[in-house]
């Protein structure tokens, strides 16, 4: 095709735009003629002169594919945020479909309903993006070259290309931000041009004049400043051949080593590398222009965290918040290994209150973003990293701010580990796990003497009725009912702690001298709650605890673990027993799943995991204190006194009855 003479005089990007505009104008004129002739109606009504052609096309063309393409193009262009990947997808789709239909003529494409105008718009944007990328590639080549001859022309072309991109609608913000991310490279290139222009050789005279022409053009300077680039100051006559060159925006790119002192930004980066927090805090405001400045692909925000300077990172966050546009901190930044900012923070050697504040800010900013659950190259989320560092504090903090993260504590990494299983390995390494109590440890109480009879009334969850159980008043003398014991009286059992007639009956039989013969975990948990709530004899409490712990060996009793882990201290379990419950909770995935079968399932699961983390921290402190003091007495399996100040009634103990049994039945292995 022979270009028109006016187009030949324009730069190459403008030539492309000129040809594209002419093709769009031709299509618009064709469409207007079709509308006047009544041929632009749907479904593809045409005038008599082209009716035969259209009928022939419709017979051999699958119109549904064209309509699908048209629908997809409209979806892409009408989106609130148009993505570059979507534009490339629909453009490539249209090219492939056009080859399948074997239709090359523009008029024939219009006859089958081809979205010519919309696709032309997509291709126009893609051409601008490709032209911008090509210019940046030339900039990188010039930066590596010994000299930058022709650089001012390239700088002018960058300004013109950015001016075209910046005029796009706000729906193209993602594409504009993508182009704006090259501001540091453009700044470094301008500084390199200024450095070459300061040379006294005659060969650089044209470079000096060209750069001066660009810097004198206020329109070009405004466009480049709108991009975010920083231009060197214009050389004045009083300065002679010397030109003050600003430090590059991206350190390490285009930086000329010489006798000059390092810029404030370079000094700030050196302070980060040396871990000098005070000096870095003094330089942070003057040295940085953006929260995304940095070195070697890492921002200063990420570098400050990597070098253990959370106070500096918080200051950068305050100066350049994430909602501050292209200058704000990039919360979606990742390292070469795929680690997110949360991964890096969780790896901190000393996790203190400043790190906790960083976690809080990041979670609040990215709670609904996909980056919060992103995995690194090892298939690990930041929860895996926190568990590996035994950082229970950050795990609990994350679940408090974003309860939906509870699903990640049972997510597998590439090695088949979950955050909970990693914590279980820590528990084993620190102090081991006590064995399950043997059956010999459960002994019946001595048989009491006869006396007056009383009745206990309990609301039974199985039958749904009130059940009365008779017993000797003498076996309840040490309980909270001691002052209410009268011949024939009826004592009501609070349904908040026990709704099992079987559990109450087993307790009375045990206190009457018979052995405890219950294996159902839920019934044993209610028996323990009943025992602690009404301060029944310690033999019954120890027997119910031992039987309950043995029942945990059966997977069908896994749903008891979430209740037991939260009420272990109030129920009077000793340290070894609590450690055993903790280990079973960490190594039984079905236990956490059972806590999520409700309307607020994720909230309940998050509370359970927080209780697990609290118990984990307690066990770590206990085992470390024991290792420090060898003479510390071992409490063994005998247990400690139950806490009456914080009974199971005050805990969040779900007693949903038959529906829970239906849920637990599905956990039983075939």
Outline the structure in words:
This protein has 670 residues and is mostly helical. It has three domains: 126-239; 264-407, Serine Threonine Protein Phosphatase 5, Tetratricopeptide repeat, CATH 1.25.40.20; 439-665, no CATH class. The protein has 29 helices and five strands. The chain has helices at 5-8, 12-36, 48-60, 63-77, 84-101, 106-111, 116-144, 151-166, 173-180, 183-197, 205-216, 218-227, 264-274, 277-287, 300-306, 310-319, 341-346, 353-366, 382-388, 392-401, 419-431, 501-511, 521-533, 538-551, 560-571, 575-587, 589-594, 601-628, 658-665; strands spanning 294-295, 298-299, 453-459, 466-472, 490-492. The strands form two sheets. The chain has a three-stranded mixed β-sheet, covered by helices on one side. Strands 1-2 form a two-stranded antiparallel ribbon. Strand 3 (453-459) and strand 4 form a beta hairpin. Helix 2 runs antiparallel to helix 7 and helix 21 (419-431) packs parallel to helix 28. The longest helix is centred in the N-terminal third of the chain and has 29 residues, at 116-144. The protein is elongated, with a radius of gyration of 37 Å. It starts with a helix and ends in a 5-residue tail after the last helix. Mean pLDDT is 77; it is low at 33-55, 236-259 and 631-670.
Layout of secondary structure:
Elements: H1 5-8, H2 12-36, H3 48-60, H4 63-77, H5 84-101, H6 106-111, H7 116-144, H8 151-166, H9 173-180, H10 183-197, H11 205-216, H12 218-227, H13 264-274, H14 277-287, E1 294-295, E2 298-299, H15 300-306, H16 310-319, H17 341-346, H18 353-366, H19 382-388, H20 392-401, H21 419-431, E3 453-459, E4 466-472, E5 490-492, H22 501-511, H23 521-533, H24 538-551, H25 560-571, H26 575-587, H27 589-594, H28 601-628, H29 658-665
Parallel strand pairs: 3-5
Antiparallel strand pairs: 1-2, 3-4
């Amino acid at each position: 095709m022979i270009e028109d003479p006016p187009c030949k005089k324009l730069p190459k990007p403008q030539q492309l735009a000129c040809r594209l505009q002419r093709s769009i104008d031709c299509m618009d004129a064709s469409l207007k003629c079709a509308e006047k002739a009544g041929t632009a109606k749907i479904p593809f009504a045409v005038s008599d002169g082209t009716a035969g052609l259209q009928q022939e096309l419709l017979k051999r063309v699958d119109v549904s594919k064209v309509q699908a393409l048209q629908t997809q193009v409209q979806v892409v262009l009408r989106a609130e945020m148009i993505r570059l990947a979507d534009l490339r997808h629909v453009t490539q789709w249209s090219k492939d479909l056009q080859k399948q239909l074997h239709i090359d003529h523009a008029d024939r494409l219009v006859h089958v309903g081809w979205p010519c105008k919309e696709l032309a718009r997509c291709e126009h944007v893609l051409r601008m993006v490709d032209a911008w990328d090509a210019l940046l590639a030339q900039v990188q080549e010039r930066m590596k070259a010994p000299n930058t001859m022709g650089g001012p022309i390239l700088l002018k072309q960058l300004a013109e290309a950015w001016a075209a991109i910046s005029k796009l609608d706000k729906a193209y913000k993602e594409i504009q931000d993508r182009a704006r991310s090259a501001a540091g490279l453009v700044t470094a290139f301008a500084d390199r041009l200024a450095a070459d222009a300061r040379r006294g050789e005659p060969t650089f005279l044209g470079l000096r004049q060209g750069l001066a022409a660009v810097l004198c053009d206020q329109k070009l300077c405004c466009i480049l400043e709108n991009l975010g680039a920083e231009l060197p100051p214009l050389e004045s006559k009083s300065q002679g051949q010397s030109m003050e060159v600003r430090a590059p925006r991206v350190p390490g790119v285009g930086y000329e080593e010489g006798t000059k002192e390092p810029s404030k930004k370079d000094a700030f980066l050196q302070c980060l590398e040396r871990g000098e927090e005070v000096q870095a805090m003094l330089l942070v405001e003057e040295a940085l222009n953006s929260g995304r400045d940095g070195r070697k692909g890492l921002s200063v925000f990420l570098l400050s965290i990597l070098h253990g300077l959370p106070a500096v990172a918080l200051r950068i966050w305050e100066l350049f918040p994430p909602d501050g546009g292209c200058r704000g901190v990039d919360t979606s930044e990742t390292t070469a290994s795929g680690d997110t900012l949360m991964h890096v923070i969780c790896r901190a050697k000393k996790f203190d209150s400043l790190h906790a504040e960083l976690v809080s800010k990041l979670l609040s900013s990215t709670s609904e973003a996909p980056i919060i659950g992103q995995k690194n190259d090892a298939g690990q989320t930041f929860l895996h990293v926190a568990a590996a560092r035994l950082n229970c504090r950050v795990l609990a903090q994350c679940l408090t701010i974003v309860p939906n993260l509870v699903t990640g504590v049972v997510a597998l990494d590439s090695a088949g580990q979950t955050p909970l299983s990693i914590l279980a390995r820590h528990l084993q390494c620190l102090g081991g796990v006590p064995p399950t109590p043997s059956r010999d440890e459960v002994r019946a109480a001595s048989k009491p003497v006869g006396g007056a009879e009383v009745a206990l009334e309990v609301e039974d969850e199985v039958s749904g009725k009130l059940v009365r159980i008779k017993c000797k008043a003498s076996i309840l003398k040490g309980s909270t009912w001691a002052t209410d014991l009268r011949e024939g009286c009826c004592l009501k059992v609070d349904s908040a702690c026990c709704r099992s007639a079987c559990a109450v009956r087993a307790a009375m039989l045990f206190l009457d001298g018979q052995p405890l013969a219950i294996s159902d975990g839920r019934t044993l948990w209610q028996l323990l709650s009943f025992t602690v709530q009404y301060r029944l004899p310690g033999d019954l409490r120890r027997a119910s605890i031992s039987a309950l712990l043995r029942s945990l060996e059966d997977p069908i009793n896994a749903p008891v673990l979430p209740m037991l882990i939260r009420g272990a201290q109030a129920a009077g379990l000793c340290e070894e027993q609590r450690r055993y419950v903790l280990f079973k909770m960490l190594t039984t995935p079905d236990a956490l799943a059972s806590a999520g079968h409700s309307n607020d399932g994720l909230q309940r699961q998050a509370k359970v995991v927080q209780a697990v983390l609290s118990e984990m921290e307690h066990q770590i402190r206990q085992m470390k204190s024991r290792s420090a003091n060898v003479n510390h007495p071992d409490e063994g399996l005998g247990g400690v006194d139950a806490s009456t100040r914080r009974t199971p009634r005050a805990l969040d103990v779900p007693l949903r009855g038959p529906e829970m049994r239906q849920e637990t039945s599905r956990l039983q292995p075939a």
